[in-house]
Amino acid sequence: MGDITIIGTGNMARAIGTLAIAGGNTVEVMGRDQSKADDLAKALGAAAGEWGAVPAGDIVITALLYDGVVPVVVEYADALAGKVIVDISNPFNATFDGLAHSEETSIAQEVANVAPAGASVVKAFNTIFRNVLEDGRPNVFIAGDSAQAKASVTAFIESIGLRPLDVGGLKMAHWLEGMGLVTVGLAGNGVGHGDFALGINEFAG
Amino acid sequence: MGDITIIGTGNMARAIGTLAIAGGNTVEVMGRDQSKADDLAKALGAAAGEWGAVPAGDIVITALLYDGVVPVVVEYADALAGKVIVDISNPFNATFDGLAHSEETSIAQEVANVAPAGASVVKAFNTIFRNVLEDGRPNVFIAGDSAQAKASVTAFIESIGLRPLDVGGLKMAHWLEGMGLVTVGLAGNGVGHGDFALGINEFAG
C-alpha cells in the first residue's frame, strides 16, 4: 500500500510495524540508537533509516513516549516537510486521571505548532493498548485538520485491517488523549481483562 | 428493581423513563412545569412528583440541559440529601469542539460541589444519543467517587438491559464529557448514520 516511516523502536513501534508490513506497506524504522533501529527493522522485514534524515515514508509515525514527540519533531525540522506526522502518544499525569500538559491542548497540537511547512499532523492509535493492537481488531480514532492527511492515514489504517473513525479536527486530539485515560481507567476497574478497546457499537436504525 | 426519580420532562427524561419502567423500576417524574410532569408520568406509567420536594427515588436523574443542572441541585438543596444524583448532561460549546466550562472540571463535579450532605454524584448516559437509547443496547460509561453510589447506578443500568462501564472517579467525568464531544464529532463525519454509541469492543485474549 503506502510508505510508512516509524520513528521509535519500542513496543508500539514493533506492533504497528508488524501490522504495517503484514498489510503490504513499505516500512522504514528510525531510532536514535541505530543498532536498535537495525534490529527492529530486521525483525520486521523493514528498512532501517538514519536518525534525523528525510524519512522515506509519506506517513511518519512517531512511536515515542509523549514527552519525546515534540523535541524529536523539532530536531527533525525540515526533514519532515510535507510529511503526514502521526502522533500516537498518551500524555498521562502520574496518577492517570488527567493529562500531563495544560488541559487546553494535546501533544498532537503541540507537534503541529513545531512541524515544518507542508507537514500535517494526525492523532491516531493512542486509545489502543499494544496487546490489543497485536491480537485484536480495534477501531482507530483519528483527528486532524488536513483532509488529505486524514485520507492517507485512513488508507494506512484500512491496509492493516482496522477501522478508522474520524472524530474531527486536530483540536479533538485533546479529547482522544482523554479517551486514552478512560481506557486506562476501564482497565483499572477490571473491564475486559485488558483485551478491549474503546470503539463504536452500531445498532440497526 | 429500584426507585428512580427523573427531574426533567424532555426527550432524555422520556427515553430513560421508558427504559426504567420497562426494567421494572418504580419511576417518579418531576418538572418545573407540573402539567408537563403529569403528562410524561401518565405516558410512562410513572408517578408525578412535586417540583422541589424530596424525591421518592434513591437515584435521582437530572435530565436537564447542562446549564440547568447545578441551579436545580442548588434549588432542591437538602431535598437531595442522601440521594445518588446522576448527571447526564453534555456541556458543549457553541462549535461542538470543546466544553462550555473551564476545562478542568465537569458538570458532574460542579454538581458534587453544591450537593447536600450524604448525596453522591455519578456521571452516566451522556455519551448516548437519545435515539440509540431508545433503539439500541449501548454501553453506559459511569464515573463517580462513591463505590456505593456507583453500585446503585450499576444495578439500575443493568435493570434496563444495558452494560455499565466504570471509568473511575468523578474527576473522569471531565473526560466522559469529552467523549460526548467525540460522539458528536463522529456523527458529524457520517459514522454509523447516528445509530451508534461509543463503547468497548472486546477481543479474545
TrEMBL record, chains A, B:
UniProt entry keywords in alphabetical sequence: Oxidoreductase
Any Pfam family hit: F420_oxidored
Keyword Oxidoreductase tagged: yes
Domain Pyrroline-5-carboxylate reductase catalytic N-terminal: 4-91
InterPro entries per UniProt: NAD(P)-bd_dom_sf, P5C_Rdtase_cat_N, STEAP_metalloreductase
The name this protein goes by in its record: NAD(P)-binding domain-containing protein
Organism: Occultella gossypii
The organism's taxonomic lineage, starting at the top: Bacteria, Bacillati, Actinomycetota, Actinomycetes, Micrococcales
